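In the design runs reported in the main text, the only information available to the sequence generator was the tokenized backbone. The following block is the verbatim input for one such run; it is reproduced so that readers can re-run the procedure and compare outputs position by position.
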């Protein structure tokens, strides 16, 4: 039987030393400026840089599309990155994830890697959680501690202990899509930015089919969950929720919502996007929430900047909404058509919005494919009184200005 990993040397096609040197110089600069310490994690674009450099495919066998590097060659790459910044080196070392995944059946591995070999795996094995044995597999739920490096992962592994009656099996690892775990909180423990700060994640209940005594079992969604272009559909899992995804979307289309442009500015630059998933949370302190898809390329910039401004649009601003929703219009071009200013946080505030809510992001909670950002309002600016713009039944609708029932 051919070993999963051989001792050959490798080189990522199309990736040269010059591009690696550019990435390392960027890491050294941003680390020296204290950016990683302030963020308490390695930014998404750095992780994506590692992906482009072939770090996460280095140890993956050729039969799965990887480079099949020697362990020595992989360690030399990690050493280079660690010399630029130890925190970045730690996140890059997740390229050894295939070592943990190697216990999965080959067919499952082929399905995991069918969209490419650059899969990022993060493990939070301890403390192992009890997994009752049920017909056809095990039921898994619980809380695990992860480092901040898990933010860039496509899939994660959690520690479980099978339980059948009074009998407990040997600990093992359950692998699932990152979206199946909800981010709870980030503690202050560990060196800032090092990836050692504790993140607690909690899964919903899963029903895993498979071999009860395998050291690693797959718990990936069976209905086409996506992350970084990887399709995890077809992996042997029975979802507890029987609600059809399209039926849910059709139903939610009947729930109208005000249209807003969500903006941010800071260490990751100026960014803006259209959204209707915005609502009030509490007025003590004044707080609202915004839901943003984690697969959106703007997501990481909101995380890195730590601020956002909700700019509620008027009835005559559907074109502006479409401008900020378009993938064909660059970010600098999006801001050219209207006047913008700043309130308290530095996030762009639309001058002719119905109202601006300028917020500091105080918490984030991952649910499925989205992050729920909680923004504590730092400043409010009211615009002129006029009709509003809502998104209902997959189209824009104008609300005519009305005389308020009370002053």
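Verbatim output:
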């Amino acid at each position: 039987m051919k070993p999963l990993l051989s001792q050959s040397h490798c080189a990522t096609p199309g990736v040269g030393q010059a591009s690696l040197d550019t990435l390392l110089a960027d890491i050294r600069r941003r680390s020296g400026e204290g950016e990683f310490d302030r963020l308490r994690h390695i930014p998404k674009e750095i992780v994506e840089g590692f992906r482009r450099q072939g770090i996460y495919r280095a140890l993956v066998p050729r039969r799965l599309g990887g480079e099949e590097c020697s362990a020595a060659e992989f360690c030399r790459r990690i050493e280079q990155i660690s010399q630029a910044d130890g925190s970045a080196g730690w996140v890059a070392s997740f390229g050894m994830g295939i070592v943990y995944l190697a216990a999965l059946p080959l067919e499952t591995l082929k399905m995991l890697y069918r969209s490419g070999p650059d899969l990022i795996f993060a493990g939070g094995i301890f403390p192992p959680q009890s997994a009752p044995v049920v017909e056809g597999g095990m039921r898994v739920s619980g809380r695990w501690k992860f480092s901040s490096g898990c933010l860039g992962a496509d899939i994660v592994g959690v520690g479980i202990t099978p339980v059948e009656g009074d009998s407990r099996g040997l600990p093992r690892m359950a692998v699932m899509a990152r979206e199946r775990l909800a981010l709870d909180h980030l503690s202050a423990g560990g060196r800032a930015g090092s990836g050692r700060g504790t993140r607690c994640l909690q899964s919903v209940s899963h029903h895993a089919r498979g071999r009860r005594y395998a050291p690693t079992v797959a718990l990936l969604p069976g209905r086409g969950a996506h992350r970084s272009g990887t399709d995890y559909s077809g992996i042997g899992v029975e979802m507890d929720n029987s609600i059809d995804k399209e039926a849910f979307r059709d139903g939610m289309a009947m729930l109208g919502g005000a249209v807003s442009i969500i903006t941010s500015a800071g260490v990751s630059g100026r960014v803006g996007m259209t959204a209707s998933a915005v609502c009030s949370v509490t007025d003590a302190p004044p707080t609202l929430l915004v839901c943003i898809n984690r697969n959106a390329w703007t997501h990481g910039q909101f995380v890195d900047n730590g601020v956002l401004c909700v700019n509620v649009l008027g009835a005559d601003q559907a074109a502006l909404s479409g401008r900020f929703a378009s993938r064909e219009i660059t970010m600098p071009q999006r801001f050219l058509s209207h006047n913008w200013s700043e309130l308290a946080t530095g996030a762009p505030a639309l001058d002719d919005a119905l109202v601006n809510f300028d917020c500091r992001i105080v918490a984030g909670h991952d649910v499925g494919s989205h992050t729920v950002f909680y923004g504590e309002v730092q400043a409010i600016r009211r615009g002129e009184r006029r009709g509003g713009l809502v998104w209902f039944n997959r189209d824009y609708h104008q609300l005519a200005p009305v005389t308020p029932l009370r002053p």
